Amino acid sequence: MIAEIISIGDELLTGQKVNTNARLICSELAGAGVGVKRIIVCSDSEEAITGQIADSLGRSDIVLVTGGLGPTRDDRTRQAVKAFLKRELVLDKGVYARTIERYRSSGREPAAYLEQNAMVIDGAMVIPNEKGLAPGMIITCDDEFRERFLVLMPGVPQEMEAMIQSTVVPFFTDRSGTVIVHSHIKATGIGETGFADIIHDIEDNLPDGTSLAYLPHAAGVNLRVSSIGNDKQGVEKDNRDVVESIVGAAEEFVFATADISLEECIGGMLQTRGLRIAVAESCTGGLIASRLTDISGSSRYFEQGYVVYSNESKERNLGVRQVTLETYGAVSEEVAAEMAEGCLLKAGADIAVSSTGIAGPDGGTEQKPVGMVCLGLACRKDNGSVDSYTTTFSTNGDRLRNKIRFSEAALRMVWKKLKSLPAQG
Amino acid sequence: MIAEIISIGDELLTGQKVNTNARLICSELAGAGVGVKRIIVCSDSEEAITGQIADSLGRSDIVLVTGGLGPTRDDRTRQAVKAFLKRELVLDKGVYARTIERYRSSGREPAAYLEQNAMVIDGAMVIPNEKGLAPGMIITCDDEFRERFLVLMPGVPQEMEAMIQSTVVPFFTDRSGTVIVHSHIKATGIGETGFADIIHDIEDNLPDGTSLAYLPHAAGVNLRVSSIGNDKQGVEKDNRDVVESIVGAAEEFVFATADISLEECIGGMLQTRGLRIAVAESCTGGLIASRLTDISGSSRYFEQGYVVYSNESKERNLGVRQVTLETYGAVSEEVAAEMAEGCLLKAGADIAVSSTGIAGPDGGTEQKPVGMVCLGLACRKDNGSVDSYTTTFSTNGDRLRNKIRFSEAALRMVWKKLKSLPAQG
Fold it and tell me: What stretches in chain B show pLDDT beneath 70?
């Protein structure tokens, strides 16, 4: 089944509010095998609402309307639907009794508008409002829109969320013939277009009902693989096959086939390997540490971080040698290596990563342009000695994008090293 | 003038992404005296895009389309517009040269798709993309849609944001023949509603043509004051008067009357006072240091940062005493104070700020719930001794929001202290 969402409310058209309701409805319906084809935000006017409902019902099996159900004067949805469907508004005694009772139990005098609040479209299936006053409705249309459904819900997010989960999704899951499966492929170290080149042939030969979507991302590629059809097993197999062939073709870039971040992936790998990480940052200024500690439970594997901007603090905290700084400059693989090694030893960690570069916009030179970063990685070996590696990475964003891409390149270096180490037990 | 927004992208219809672009466009256009009447999200298919553009152009003076401009195959906007307007795609030599140059300067080989990326609708005014590859376009339609405008922008938020501010809003402001003045008021430590209460009377008595827009923000309030009219001096005076009265009413929360961040404001204050700052972070995991170093030139005042998660690293790096950790627990003002003092001395800085708290979702207790953070501030006095202050801040978001709000509270503590210190020369 195909659905459209109509979100009503001027606050969504003036930039005061973001339409988070539509996002929630979309993901809930996807799970019910209902695909949303359009989301329309329109103003509170009765005329706009009626016209939009007519358009949308003409194109879809289900039209979900949020907002404009309250008892205040700018809530026009009930009236618009009444006029459009040529049905009466009738008092729902159950809703009325519950709201009166709720007022009494909270020691408030029942307000006059509670009766108006309990008026519903004749013949509608009422959706109880667990979190607020205005009831929702599922209306089965007739005449030219026979067999099509009109769903009315309040615009208050928590009221709408409770209704869609408790009543709307179960109602349509029962009726929906189709199955939709989404999978995620997360890649790093490659852009959208580069990735598209690699999987060109696969993309040209997708099974019917399966599609790819590239979701933009500051420092990598998020790919969504969606399959739709009537046969659950067939849909799942198509989806699985496509995911497998894409992962096979782009193995060196793919870090996950779930919707997780690179830092979350690294956190899991550190734990399965029983390793603790430390970070020494110059140009990334704490961003690598902050990303690693964005993950709940990161205290289990994050030992500590140093943000060392000045040469002095690199020497003082990490034991970077003055001669190295003077000979090669602060932005050099030599300094990155000493930062990582010093960090590993000072923090007593098992693996350490370092960054020193030029985030910009100033400070670039011919040999060391803005957007260049030198990265170091140090690892403790079983015999106690230290392995270290370095690399240089270049990009061309503004300061903030450079910091994000630098941190992504550093995390990538850690991820690649961890892949080469065996997981325990 | 009346506008509609068409947001293209299946990721908006599957619940993957929330449509923040539309909100930004609405508030920017409102400032330009353009009212948005509808927002439509539709899928990547060429047919859906073409049909929607026809509908929307039939109803509005301006139709803004975001998304589907990249060079990958699920980016269909260019083709749809080409077919709909019956115009050719032509190579924009300027865009092509700039992207080639950008690739070269970052040491990458220009990719084949750069040519396709530089193809624009014949006759379109090109909007340069400062933050990415795909150019935007402002197209003046003809025939049945004469005098109506079609604006194409990428879906990547920061690329779209730069385009609408640098080119699109000025373009339509000029055409509307009116004068528009925007001012920004940046406040921290107070929510949207709390701020609205404070300026209630001012908001009720705004001069004609002046409007306020609250722009959502994770840890404070961004208020835009827009004044529109025909008489330049009158418009400027109205705007200035409103800004002054708001700042007067909310002085303790307002850190800037320009569109700058709190970290940028603090950077300026540190420089005018000739002070260097250091940071000691537990629960914020490097975010405070990362925010301070997001500012270009921060090496002039950022001394260094410690990310100390474990008790051991707090003792080892900052000299926090074991007895303090055992007596009061790691999350306590006592530990926050020793962290800040130790950080100040170890780093040899003039001012130091520290954080220790529970970002969640786990680790909370009755006495120390998730969302609670203890902050410390240490300052070197002229006689060499150290002043220190502590405070406890509580909020209730998810882990990432808590980290942002914790870091904001820490920066706020620094800002308030700096306000009390005299600027030099």
Answer: 73-74, 215-218, 425
Same domain, B301 and B316: yes
A248 C-beta neighbours (distance < 10 Å), count: 11
Kindly report the nearest CA distance between residue A315 and chain B, in angstroms: 12
Select from B15, B24, B313 the Cβ nearest to the Cβ of A23: B15
Distance, in Å, from the CA atom of B75 to the CA atom of B71, rounded to the nearest integer, reads 6
Q: What's the whole-model pTM score?
A: 0.78
Is residue A424 in some structural domain?
Answer: no
Q: Is residue B425 a part of any domain in this protein?
A: no
Domain that holds residue A61: 2-176
Domain harbouring A298, CATH code: 3.90.950.20
CA B113 centroid distance within chain: 31
CA angle B276, B277, B278 (to 5 degrees): 135
Q: What is the ipTM of this complex?
A: 0.77
- Is there a contact between A37 and B19 if contact means CB atoms under 8 Å apart? no
Query: Does A307 sit within 8 Å of B286, measured CB to CB?
Result: yes
Residues B161, B203, single domain; the answer is: no
Residue in the structure block whose two tokens are 């399966």? A210
Query: Residue with structure tokens 């609708």?
Result: B121
Q: Do B382 and B350 meet the contact criterion of CB atoms below 8 Å apart? A: no
Neighbours of B297 (CB within 10 A): 13
The whole-angstrom separation of Cα A337 and Cα A356 is 10
Is B239 strand, coil or helix? helix
**Rounded CA separation A84/A107 (Å):** 39
Number of domains in chain B: 3
Calculate how close chain B gets to A101, using CA atoms only, in Å: 30
Whats the size of chain B, residue-wise? 425
